[in-house]
Every structure is written in C-alpha cells, then in structure tokens.
TrEMBL record:
Protein's UniProt name: 5'-deoxynucleotidase
Enzyme class: hydrolase
SMART domains membership: HDc (SM00471)
Cofactor: Mn(2+); Co(2+)
Organism per entry: Paenibacillus allorhizosphaerae
InterPro entries recorded: HD/PDEase_dom, HD_domain, YfbR/HDDC2
Enzyme Commission number: 3.1.3.89
Domain HD/PDEase: 31-148
Length: 188
C-alpha cells in the first residue's frame, strides 16, 4: 500500500506540469491559459450540464474531461489552427501519457488509458459530449478572454462544430456560443 500511495503522490506532483503548459487562449486579465485551467473548467462545464443529459454516464464524462489533455504534459498544446498530422499528434500524446502515468498502479493506468482512447476515438455518447464541450469551452475562452488584434474569430465558427450536431441540446448550446462569436466579429 505504501508503494501505491507513493506512486500516486509522484503522479500528482508530475501533474503540476499541466499548470505550466500554456494554450493559445488568454484570460480576460491577459494571462495565457494553462492546460490545467482548461481541463478544470471543461470538467465543471460537463458537471453543470448534467441535468440536460440524463442518459449520459456523467461520471465517465467528468473523468474523461479531467484526463483528455494529460498527454500534453510534455509536448505541450498544439493550436487547432495549425494543421498537424492527427495520427502523429495522438502517438506523441500517448507516449507522454505512458510516461506521466508510470508511477500509478496498473489498474489505474489502464482505466485512464481506456478513457483517453475512448475520448480520442469519439464514438461513445460520452466521448462525443466531451469533444463537443471541449471545443465550446475553448471558444468561450476566446470570446471571454484577451485576444490579439489579428485573432481569427471566424475560425471559431467552424471549429469543432461537427461534434455538436448529433444532439439537439449540444447544437442549441453551440448556436448560443456562435452567437457570442458573431458579436465579437462585429465589434472587431
């Protein structure tokens, strides 16, 4: 048991990296957002939507929200506007995940890997839900936070939209957020 607890503490310490890995979104105060902050707010977003999705396994969705970007701990976040090879990106993140999860007990590593793969395959209702709100949380941050004068808000109107089209609640939520994006475009 002592070795297991030591491994968990090592894992938690290593997670600090995600507090320092920045994303291409900025807070309203003008500070770059971290991956940890994005994952935290995404998780609360899922939790806040629980009553709107009674048929989802929300425990799974919340866990998926927490772990979806763990693979960015070493290689960092790659902006969606950069067109990278998705297969290579996922392979790199998986290798990082192996490194990050190494101190954990085998059963916990397997559980996190299973959720991470499920999210990236995007086939289950929970994965589709988390993918949709992951993209929406990013757009909300862009609309809410500081953005450089050359920021392309129009990109956000299509960014990840396909993930929200399978569900009427997600589609309605996306339309609301897109409306906020359109308002930002009109202001700039």
């Amino acid at each position: 048991m002592d070795q297991q607890l030591s491994g968990i503490v090592s894992f938690i310490k290593e997670l600090e990296r995600l507090k320092d890995v920045t994303r291409t979104a900025w807070t309203a105060e003008g500070r770059q957002e971290s991956v940890a902050e994005h994952s935290w707010r995404l998780t609360l977003f899922a939790f806040a939507l629980e009553d709107c999705f009674p048929d989802l396994d929300m425990n799974k969705a919340i866990r998926m929200s927490l772990i979806h970007d763990l693979g960015e701990a070493y290689g960092g976040d790659i902006s969606a506007v950069l067109q990278v090879n998705e297969k290579d990106k996922l392979q790199s993140e998986e290798e990082a995940l192996h490194r990050l999860l190494a101190p954990l007990p085998q059963s916990m590593r397997e559980q996190i890997f299973e959720l991470w793969h499920e999210y990236n395959q995007g086939e289950t209702n929970e994965a589709k839900f988390v993918k949709a709100i992951d993209k929406m949380e990013t757009i909300i941050q862009h609309n809410q936070g500081y953005t450089p004068s050359n920021f392309d808000y129009a990109f956000n109107l299509e960014y990840g939209k396909r993930y929200a089209l399978h569900d009427p609640v997600l589609k309605s939520l996306r339309e609301k957020i897109d409306g906020e994006t359109m308002a930002k475009i009109k202001k700039t």
